[in-house]
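Protocol step 4 of 6: structure prediction from sequence.
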Amino acid sequence: MKMNNTNPCGTEAFDKVYSIGYQVNHEDWSPYPRVNNLRQTFLDRPYDIDVERFRLVTEAYQNNESAPRKLQCAYAFENILLNTTLSIYDEDLILGEIAAPAKASPIYPEFSVKWITDEILNSPFEERSNDQFYIRNEKEKQEILELCKYWEGKCADDLINVRLDEEQKKGSHVGEKVFQTNNYHFAGIGHFAMDYKKLMTLGYSGVIEEAKTHFAKLSKSDPEYGEKRDFYKATIIMLEASKKYITRYAKLAEDMAAVETDEKRKQELEDMAANCHVISGDAPKTFWQALQLFNFATTLIQIEGNGHSISYGRMDQWLNPFYEADMKNNEITKEFVLELIEVLYVKMNNPTKLKDKGTVKVRNGRGFGGESLTIGGIDKDGNDATNDLTMLMLEGSAHTRMMNPWVCVRMHENTPYELKVKTTECTRAGYGHPKIFNDGPAIKAMLSKGVTLEEARDYCVVGCVEPSLPGKEFGWLDAGYVNTAKMMEMVINGGRTLNEIELGPNTGSLETYKSFDEVLESVDQQFAYWCDQLCSCLNIMEDVHRIVKPTPYVSAFFEGCLESGKDMTEGGVKYNGTAPQGSGIATCADSLSTIKKLMFDDKRYTGAELLKAVKDNWEGHEKIYALVNSSKVPHFGNDDDAADDLFKFMFECYCRHIKGRKNLRGGDFSPGVYTVNANVGMGLYTNASLDGRKNNEPISDNMGPVHTDGGSHDICGPTALVNSVAKVDHSLASNGTLLNLRFPEEAVSGVEGRDILISFIDEYIAKQGMHVQFNILISFIDEYIAKQGMHVQFNIMSSETMKAAQKNPENYKDMLVRVAGYSAYFVELGKPLQKDLIQRTELNF
C-alpha cells in the first residue's frame, strides 16, 4: 500500500519523544517486527573467531610466493571472494558479510600473528575481563596456531619492530608507553570514507573500465612502470572478483527462493537476487539496490584489510538521488525506506574485529570501531543540506539503538529547528547517539589542510572524532595516542619517570626551576623531543604498510589513485596526511596550575615537596592532596582564565609540535586533541600527577576537565565548562577535538529540558567548539554552536543508573552508553572504564 509521501520530516513527528534515558525492558523499539527480530538475533549471537579467511589468504600467498606484493594481495582477495562460505539470514533484506559469519571475527595475518599465538597459549581470548572472543573448537584452535607459523617474520608488525631504534622503542607500546601506535602496528589502514557517489554512478564495471583506460595509457618510459602496472592489474583482478562475489550471492538467493514455501519471503529472496544481478556490474537503479551495493562495497573494504573506522560519508546526501527518484515514481514508500535503513543499521553491527590484549586495555570494544555515518550540515554552496533522509536516518537510529552506525549530525547557525529537536530527542533517549559536529570550526580545520572551500564544506566524520574528505583524503587518522601526562612526569623529574626510569632529555625538574617560565620551556622541549620520536615511528610504519599490504581495491575509490597508478599507501590519493592525537591535556594543565599556584605564586610549597608528594603517590601528603583537588587551586573547566590559559598553552603546544611535519606520502602531519576512552588504559601506565591523580587512575578524557578519586575539578556547571573549552581555537586541531558531557535523566526531561539543551548546543557551536557529545539537550546545542565548539557528545544517564547496571548486569544487557567517540554496551566494558564513566561530572542546568 502506498503512503502519503508529503511529510518532509520522515515518518514521525520531528518532536516525538522516544524516551528519557535508558529504561529496563524498554518496549518502544522499531515499528517493524523484522527489525526487532534481527536485533535480538544479533544480541543472542556469541563473539566467535572464524578461521576461514585466515585459511584462504594463507593458501593464496603460499601459491603465489614469487608474485609482486600487489598481485599477491589481489590473488588473496580473489581467493577469499570466490571461496568463502556465504549465508543469507532469516528475514534479512541486505546481503553481505566480511568473509565470516555474523558477529564472528576473521583473522588478518598480513599485519600481525605473534600476539595471536601468545594469547591462545598464555592469555586465552575467552578469559579476558572484557572483549572476550571464542574459538569454536580445539581443531580450529590448532589450525590457527599452525597457520600462524607460516606468517612469522612476514607480517607488518615484524618489519616495523626491526626498523625502530631504541629511542623510538622506549617511548612506544613496547617500552614506557609515552605514545601508542597499536592501530596501525597490529592492524590495517583505516579511518577513511571512500567515494560512494562514484561507485553509485559508475558501478563496478564502470570503475573497471576507468582502470583499464588509465592502464592502457601507461608508458614503459615511466620509471615507475613496473609498480604502476602491478597496481592496475591488481585493481582490475579485485574489482572483477567483487562482481563475481556479488553474483554468488544472487545465485544463493535464487536457490533459496526456489525452495521457499512462504510466498512473502520467496518474493523477498527473488528481489534480492535481482538486485544483486544488477549491481554486480552496473550502477544501482533503485534505493534498495543502492543500499545493497553500499553494504557490499563496505564489507569488501573490511575483507581486504581490517582497518578501524571504515566510515560511510554523507550518506543522506549521496543516497538522496535514489530516494527522491523512487519516491517521485511511487516505487517505494517511506515506511519501506525506513525499514531498509533499520535492517541495514542492525547489519552494520555484524562485523567484529579481534584485537590484541594491549589494545583492548586501552580501548574497549569488539566492533571494527568508528563506523561513522554523517548527516546534515551545509552543501558545497554553503546552504543547509537537510533532507528527508536526514530525518529518516535519525528515526532508524532511535528505533534500533545499537552500537553502529555512529550517527554524526553536522550543525551550523542555520540548521533547521526541526533537525535540532529530532537530534535532541534521539539524545534524550539515552543510547549515546548521535554526536554533534559544528560546521564552522570543522570547515576551518579542513581548510588548514589545503583543501578548497567547496571540498571543505563536503567534509564527513570518520571514526570517533576526525573530519575528513570522502574519496579525496587518506589522512592516516587516529595514528597514535600521545600520553601528554607521561611527558609531564619528565618535565617535573629531569627527564625520568617518577619511578626513576631514564626516558627523555633532562630539561629540568621541580627541584631546579627558578621561574614558571622555565617550567613552560621544559614542557615545550619535552614535547618537541617526543613528537620527533612519535612521528619518525609513524613514517616507518607507513613505509612498511606500503611494502607489505597495499590496498588496490579501496584505492580505486579515491581520487588520484587510478589517475596516477599509485595505491593509496604510496601517496596516490589527492590529499594525504598523518594524524596522531594528544591525550590528557587537562591533566597537564591542572598540574601546571598546581605548580604555578603553590610553588611560584603563593610559595606555599617547594618544588621538592611537590615532587616528593607525587613520588609517594600522595601517601603521607593528604593535606596537599586535598588542596590540589579543591577549588583553592584554579582548575580548567570553570571559566577561570588562570586555569584555562594553561589548558590553551598545552593545547597549542601539542598542535604546534605536530602540525606541518611531512610524511612519506607527500602530505602533512595533522594534530588531534582527544583520547576516546584510551585515557583509562593510559592512566594504568602513568604514575601520580600534580593535578591530584594517584597511580594508575585515568588521565583526563578528550577536551574534558580532570576528575580524580579526589573529586571532579569542574564545579561550576555546563555553561562554565563550555566557556572554558571555547577559549581555544579548535580548528588548530585539524584531526579533531571531542567534548563529553553527561546529564542525569531528570535534567533533560520535559519540553523545557529539551529546549535548554538545544539552546546550549547552539551557543557552543557559535563559539567554535568542534565536537561535543551529550548526555543532555537543545538549549545546550544552541550554546555549543554559538561558542564554536567543534564536536560534542552526550550521555543522558545518571551515575545511579550505571551503578544499577554494574549490580544487575543481566537486566541491562542492551544499555548503550556514550563512551567517547563511540557508544558501547555498558555491561561489556571493563571495570576501569565503567568507573571512569561513573566518575565523569554529572552536570545539571
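Step 5 (inspection) to follow. Confidence is low (pLDDT under 50) at residues 1-7.
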